[in-house]
Write a structure and sequence with these properties.
By secondary structure, the chain is an alpha/beta fold. Helix content is 36%, strand content 9%. The chain contains five helices and four strands. Keywords: Flavoprotein, Oxidoreductase.
């Protein structure tokens, strides 16, 4: 299940509803939950203090609440950051989309060089009605 954890209208209320919903579905034996959301409308760094893996705090709180795998989405861009999150939280999986559209072989590049920086700019120009392709390819 993919669920919104925060948005620009009422961040606290949305997150409270997200936590409640995640607990409910975890009790119903959901296989996993992907934590999504919109932190990009918040210039306040108390709400979004990160430049990558931006939803990690929200996903971590949900991971503490439930006994099923939590998947983190939202600007997952470096092996070092994802490894740190994997080793310091109960988040177990990471989701990527745009970086893989730009570089379908990204996982192989990371295996060769864990410090490799993906080329994706997160410009969102890859999502088009005629198909998802990077405008820089």
């Amino acid at each position: 299940m993919k669920i919104n954890s925060i948005d620009g209208r009422s961040p606290e209320r949305v997150f409270d509803a997200c936590r409640y919903t995640c607990r409910h579905f975890a009790e119903k034996q959901m296989d996993a939950i992907e934590i999504s959301g919109n932190v990009f409308d918040f210039p306040d760094t108390r709400i979004n203090p990160y430049r990558e893996s931006v939803l990690r705090d929200y996903a971590d709180q949900i991971a503490e609440d439930v006994d099923i795998p939590i998947i983190l989405v939202g600007l997952n861009r470096s092996c070092a950051t994802m490894t740190e999150i994997l080793n310091s939280t109960n988040i177990r999986y990471f989701s990527l989309s745009r970086p893989l559209i730009r570089e379908p072989n990204l996982i192989n590049l990371w295996q060769q060089n864990p410090m490799y920086v993906p080329q994706c700019l997160s410009c969102n120009q890859c999502f088009r009605p005629d198909g998802n392709t990077c405008i820089f390819e």
